[in-house]
């Protein structure tokens, strides 16, 4: 999902970066919608998800 947001929501560029077919990207995004709710692409919800993904990446890069 981070790659999808990183490509500005481009199915073609997401597929290219993941080395998969655009139909596969579409199917995966549909599955995500079923899991987290159909509103995930609405601006405010998409921002929440992007922030959560960013915080998750930051947390993973912390070394104590």
Automatic annotation (TrEMBL):
It comes from the Bacteria. InterPro entries: CdaR-like_regulators, PucR_C-HTH_dom, PucR_C-HTH_sf. PANTHER family: CARBOHYDRATE DIACID REGULATOR, DNA-BINDING TRANSCRIPTIONAL ACTIVATOR ADER. This is Helix-turn-helix domain-containing protein. Residues 3-54 form the PucR C-terminal helix-turn-helix domain. Signal peptide: none annotated. Transmembrane segments: none annotated.
